Amino acid sequence: MAEAFSVPVVVRGYETDTQGHLNQAVYLQYAEHARWSLLQKAGIRQTDLMNRGVGPVALEVTVRYHRELRAGDQVEVTCAFLWGEGRTFRIEQTIRKADGTVAAEVTGVGGLLDLEKRRLVADPRAVFRTLAADPELFGL
Questions:
Q1: Where do the domains of the chain lie?
Q2: Tens-place pLDDT, residues 7-64
Q3: 109 forms bridges with which residues in the sheet?
Q4: Which CATH topology does 5-138 take?
Q5: Residue-wise pLDDT tens digits, 72-99
Q6: Distance in Å from the first CA to the final CA of the chain
Q7: How many C-beta neighbours within 10 Å does residue 89 have?
Q8: Can you tell me the distance from the alpha carbon of 18 to that of 129, in angstroms, rounded to the nearest whole number?
Q9: Fewer CB atoms near the end CB (10 Å): N or C, the chain?
Q10: DSSP code of residue 74
């Protein structure tokens, strides 16, 4: 498998809680940022998805917290799509500190929603392959 896509993020002070740790919900925002960054890098804009009549949806998300993050910490957030044969796909993400320490792992199950029918599209891989200028970023 190719090396996972990654995007750098610096923890901002306003994202921390009263203990000075990165707020638990912000880990999900970092993961979301990496997913949209991957789409953009692959050549897919949000308007491209909307014009196609589809939108990405999260069906399940799990966060495993390993180490705390504090304001000023620099992290890399990875994003890798794993494809099966059905309507859904898995996304595996790691939030890693600059020294290589894993701060959190985010795993999820997603799909592409047909915005008119309000149902998952049958083959999300085909949609990503069609829309992406660089489908290899999705492992396609």
A1: 5-138
A2: 999 999 999 999 999 999 999 999 999 999 999 999 999 999 999 999 999 999 999 9
A3: 60, 90
A4: Thiol Ester Dehydrase; Chain A (3.10.129)
A5: 999 999 999 999 889 999 999 999 999 9
A6: 11
A7: 21
A8: 44
A9: N
A10: E
